[in-house]
Amino acid sequence: MQILKFGGKSLANGEGLRTVLSIITGKVGQRQPIAVVVSARDKATDQLEAMLEKASQGGDISADFQAFKEYQTAGEDIDFSEEFSILQKIFDGVFLLGNYNDKIKDNTLAQGEVLSAKFITHLLTKQGIKAEFVDSRHFYTTDSFFGNAQLIEDTSRRNTIQYFTQISSEVVPIVTGFIAANVHGQTTTLGRNGSNYSASLLANFLDAEELQNYTHVDGIFTANPELVPDAKIIQQLSFEEANELANFGTSILHAKTIIPLLEKKIPLRILNTFKAQEQGTLICEEGTSTGGIRAISVLEDYALVILEGRGLLGKVGVDARIFRSLADAKISVSIISQGSSERGIGFLVANKEAQKAKQALEKEFETDVYNQDVSKVRVVEDVGVISIVGQNLADFDKPYNALIRNQITPLLINNSATGKNVSVVIYKKDLPKAVNVIHGEIFEISKRINLAIFGRGTVGNTLIEQIFEARTDILKRRNINLQIIAIASSKELLFNHRGITPKQYAFFTEQAHPYAFNQFITLVQQHHLENLIAIDVTASKTFVEHYLSLVKNGFDLVSANKIANTIDYTFYKKLRETLAQYKKQYLYETNVGAGLPLIDTIKLLHHSGENITRIKGIFSGTLSFLFNTYSASNAPFSQILQRAIDSGYTEPDPREDLCGNDVGRKLLILARELDLENEFSEVSIENLIPETLRSGSREEFLSRLQEFDPIYQKIKDNAPKGTVLRYVGDLHGDLSQTQTAHLNVQLVSVPENSALGQVKGADSIFEIYTESYGENPIVIQGAGAGAAVTARGVFGDILRIIGNK
Question: In the listed set 168, 188, 216, which residue is the last one of a domain according to the structure?
């Protein structure tokens, strides 16, 4: 025999009912012996409880009750007069008394199960199926603890076997779930998940071959798919694993459901009523399980109660006093955490019982508080629990570190007695984000990295295209899902928490909306996004002011914007202190050498204790092209400059390159990487623009380029023979003994056979002199300009941050 259990959502009017009837008639057609256990239909239990509560407060429930009756009959010619009459009498009595107890509540809620079982019996009979309504109160016997009655198992087993022996094998029993009766025949209920418990008891007592639990979900998942979109279905679990999941809050299971099945090794299959052809999740004997981490469960609406005091140290019986006082107050305790010293203890209770628990403990330890042996009883409300079933505490470092990186600090960590489950208590508001972070770390599912890109200039657009092109390959090779959740210009934002597609980005102008920075942060928080990286490809000083806020809200930073590293040293230090405080990363390799590994090399040398004595080089790809070409050509300077402009090497206004400030900023960045405290005002910069051309419009400037020619021809003519012109940045001084260095940016003549003199095209070159290398510098040379090179460097920083996560 198979036991079929149908949940309330499966039994809703319409598609639900039609599907349930189809499943049952299909089994009958296959001559499969079955018994069916049903819950109250759709939202009947909640509706009955709501009407009971409303009646107790003197409310008029006539309209609610009429709607309830119409839904339950669903236009069928069925006699529910007895059940409706019982309910009417209960509601009338509660209305007059203004109160009700658990006994009355049990009798009320039981009618939902009775109505459901009778209704399914009626519909099957109409279809020619021999079906019989079975009231489980006739054989399930319990104590008199109304609301959560405990089964008297021997009596119930004997009664069940005797009752079902009298039912013909050709008849399909339609059995009420959830309800039973005490020895006096009074209605009781079996508590939370009671209908599933009823079904597992029936399977045990009748020695069923399998229990099939039809629900509105596809089975048991690695995590709640409503919280974790990447959650995967678990095809098979052992009874022990299922029991652990049930104990740690998986909503579809309850420990009471598993135990009767475990006793007789009866398989349980979790199926979706609306996808009956799918296999769902099978729970069976341990030998078929794969082991390891199986799932993550989430419990909400808890409070953390903490009792601390120096006077508790070494005292015998403290724990006994705590739990006796809570037991007397009928408060159930969940996770418990205690240091071996007994100086403090923390445990979880339901949110609604938190203050009651606090009062009970304050009463019990009143004298201890007065004597200052107990400091006080603290309550942290609105916390939740994430339990990782199958997680060994010794291997918990990776998910723990991921939580910290995403700025989620556990309030309490507990390892189960079996050593196979770890539970983390955190604030309820952090649950959605935390469960996604943990799930991404422990299962072989792609880690989702959420990128926010600020800046839609040439570099920004190139970077976005590079990410779109590479993300499939990165997913395949590294199991990392790069997801751009935000693209912003200075005034407009395109946001999609599930990831912006190339098609969406193509219509940025139509789909983006005006935004303020705080609105962006709010969107990120609302969607509980994890593994966040903000990428700044602007040149905006205003946006740099948001860096601290980004870090505090969980973002790592990647920047091609030099401003954050070159404005006043106070901000520079504050940013790094904030990064350390929130354990976030900030990479900016492209600030100096575009795609060249310059900053990373200098950091490595400096942090390893190498004494860097000088850094010298050509820092600007634009000015490298300009003077490399001019030195090797007889063409006038203005002509070479125009060629640089036409080739896109310069900024729209070439004076931004020619003034030398960009090179000065790059030199300052390197100085600060060596822990020097120079300010930008201390950089000596030779401005390459004649004073007469430094002001005025861009158009006027471009029309007067010939004024450069006599000036630079004279410089070229006066240069020593065998030399060429180069615009060089030079960091030097007694770097080991001072807090600042000499920073010079100037046009100089260098030997044409030197490293600087042999640079071609728009390459940059850097010479790093160190104490160990002596007069032979480390030379880094390559393309120092261009959108593709810079974007690729930014992309490299993104991947480095991901690699460190």
Answer: 216
